[in-house]
Specification:
With 479 residues, the chain is an alpha/beta fold. Among the domains are: 114 residues, no CATH class; 175 residues, Rossmann fold (3-Layer(aba) Sandwich). The strands form three sheets. Strands 3, 6, 7, 8, 9, 10 and 11 form a seven-stranded mixed sheet that branches. It has a two-stranded antiparallel ribbon with strand order 1-2. The longest helix has 23 residues. The protein is globular and about 75 Å long.
Length: 479
């Protein structure tokens, strides 16, 4: 009787696996998603193998669905199958990276040996994933390889390794965490400073106050974010002193920190200086907390791009030139491409002489107007418009590639993404996965992405909105 029950259960399991395998073939995302959910419910080595096959495939939409299923795997035996895939995927660095990231999410110390095996991988993203995964697993056996990665040639790897050491034992590795704040790469300094409130909370205030003097705007911005909850007069004095930072995005972050601490919301640095001169001797944090917040003076925004305020002086425009831009835009009574060009032309004229900028045209690839940001003048504006006009609408769009290109240069802090709809091709296409990796890049870059979408589809609009919200950006829907 017992053997009959086991045989029956095995037959049922085999049938469910067959059903899952059939669904994972599609067609259609809904069908594939139901297959991925079924695999997660089965939660076995065999169901993981089905998901890994999709994750290694060429269809980016199906890959992102498989990722969602793999995150839900709970069986240690099934998770071990993910670990074994790392060695099997010797020719696919992306698959190795994703598997290592999954092992970090699972957090099982049993997976540590497999993670440590790729700490010397020739691909930066795999080494970075390994260091980050170890930080989630938090196993002291990884200290020796992490100490080596803490001096890796790539800044992201160094940052992840130092953070991982802090997660394992922050007190024991405080020195290496502090040394990371002097890293030659400003992105790594920014990232590690962002870890201080959690890893070295008692030292956060002092380290962040020092960060406000960093030469790089990203570190200064991170420092201001860290100091938002530090209720000391020393902190207030320093924030007021730095409220006229040369970077508008840093000024805005400092203002928000001051508003949170004091209840005031002034935009004028001179007003903050006057107030602090008068109030520093008597200011009381508890009283400020009890008092209702006082409204800030009206903010004056002279230039808007599709009703999105343009306040930064280091900006990028990501312009969709995919085939969908040939479609008619009801709001503009023209093609989407024509409407896009008209708005870009109008805004560039208004910003003449005021900003550094770059323009990216994207479809299946992303091309930049220039290798580095340009000072915007009449000649540069004319060149930018000709650049977009020459990139006539063609093919599907790779929004992830466009975002990667625009966030590569740390001189650009604000990105305006114009899209005709949802991401279609690329390494990542689903908004939740794009948002996941974009947030991680933002920890090094501090950029913000604002978005505009020309579409009649609620679902397409929601995806672009969520991508922008992931960075703290705003969104406009042009129907």
């Amino acid at each position: 009787m017992l053997f009959a029950s086991i045989a029956s259960a095995n037959m049922l399991s085999d049938k469910r696996l067959e059903e899952a395998e059939e669904r994972l073939r599609g067609p259609g995302e809904d069908t594939v998603r139901s297959g991925a959910k079924l695999c997660a419910e089965i939660n076995s080595v065999e169901s993981v193998e089905l998901l890994l096959e999709v994750l290694a495939g060429e269809n980016p939409h199906y890959r992102d669905i498989a990722w969602e299923g793999l995150i839900e795997i709970r069986s240690p035996y099934a998770q071990a199958r993910v670990a074994s895939e790392v060695a099997k995927a010797s020719r696919d660095e992306n698959l190795r990276m994703w598997c290592i990231q999954l092992l970090g999410i699972y957090g099982d110390p049993a997976a540590l040996p497999g993670v440590l095996d790729v700490c010397g991988d020739k691909h930066e993203q795999v080494r970075a994933a390994a260091a980050a995964a170890v930080g989630l697993i938090k196993d002291a056996r990884a200290v020796k390889p992490l100490l080596k990665l803490a001096n890796d040639k790539e800044p992201r790897v160094r940052a992840y390794a130092r953070e991982a050491l802090g997660r394992i034992n922050a007190a024991e590795h405080e020195k290496i965490l502090r040394e990371g704040l002097a890293d030659k790469d400003a992105g790594a300094r920014c990232y590690l400073l962002g870890c201080m409130p959690q890893l070295l909370p008692d030292a956060n205030a002092a380290l962040s106050l020092a960060g406000l003097d960093d030469a790089d705007w990203r570190v200064r911005m991170q420092a201001a974010e860290n100091l938002k909850t530090v209720r000391t007069k020393e902190n207030l004095a320093k924030l007021v002193e730095k409220s006229a930072d040369v970077r508008s995005i840093v000024r805005s972050t400092i203002r928000l920190a001051l508003e949170h601490l004091t209840g005031h919301g002034w935009y004028d640095p001179a007003q903050w200086q006057r107030w602090w001169t008068e109030q520093q001797a008597t200011f009381d944090f508890e009283e400020a907390k009890k008092s209702p917040k006082k409204a800030a003076e009206n903010r004056s925004v002279s230039v808007k791009y599709h009703e999105l305020a343009v306040e930064s002086n280091h900006i990028a425009f990501l312009i969709d030139v995919s085939s969908a831009m040939r479609e008619h835009s009801g709001a503009a009574q023209s093609s989407k491409a024509e409407a896009s060009m008209q708005e870009l032309s109008r805004v560039l004229e208004l910003l003449d002489g005021k900003v550094r900028f770059n323009v990216f045209a994207y479809d299946t690839t992303a091309r930049a107007l220039a290798d580095k940001p340009l000072d915007l003048d009449g000649r540069a504006a004319k060149k930018a418009l000709a650049f977009i006009e020459d990139a006539s609408p063609r093919g599907p769009k790779d929004i992830w590639a466009a975002l990667l290109a625009a966030t590569e240069n740390p001189d650009l802090d604000t990105i305006y993404l114009l899209a005709s709809g949802e991401p279609e091709v690329g390494l990542y296409v689903h908004y939740n996965r794009i948002a996941l990796y974009l947030r991680e890049r933002q920890r090094f870059g501090k950029f913000v992405v604002h978005g505009v979408v020309y579409t009649d589809s609620d679902w397409y609009a929601k995806q672009i909105e969520e991508i922008c919200r992931a960075t703290g950006g705003e969104f406009r829907w042009v129907k």
